[in-house]
């Protein structure tokens, strides 16, 4: 299974407790599958549903990020750390790391258009 998970992986982090020897634990480690480059949706070959289904089938945490656009990267690490520590993140903590999209509000002139000469045809939408 690992050969399918780490195909073309850029990095894999294995974290263990250096104060405990031998290296064995009663609990299973947290495994998170992080899909990168969500800013390139036009080139996407792995659909989010398939990513999520794979994670659910294998007991992985699921994260989708864009390292280039820094979208959800901090939140990914924050969620992983919180789960390891048994901390539930509140809505404010989750929202603080999400990117804010700013847009200008444009009020277009709402002048009524003249009636079409041939009412059986559909009306035309003009974008200017």
UniProtKB/TrEMBL annotation:
<dbReference type="GO" id="GO:0003924">
    <property type="term" value="F:GTPase activity"/>
</dbReference>
<dbReference type="InterPro" id="IPR001806">
    <property type="entry name" value="Small_GTPase"/>
</dbReference>
<dbReference type="InterPro" id="IPR027417">
    <property type="entry name" value="P-loop_NTPase"/>
</dbReference>
<keyword id="KW-0547">Nucleotide-binding</keyword>
<keyword id="KW-0342">GTP-binding</keyword>
<protein>
    <recommendedName>
        <fullName>RAB28, member RAS oncogene family</fullName>
    </recommendedName>
</protein>
<dbReference type="Pfam" id="PF00071">
    <property type="entry name" value="Ras"/>
</dbReference>
<comment type="similarity">
    <text>Belongs to the small GTPase superfamily. Rab family.</text>
</comment>
<dbReference type="GO" id="GO:0005525">
    <property type="term" value="F:GTP binding"/>
</dbReference>
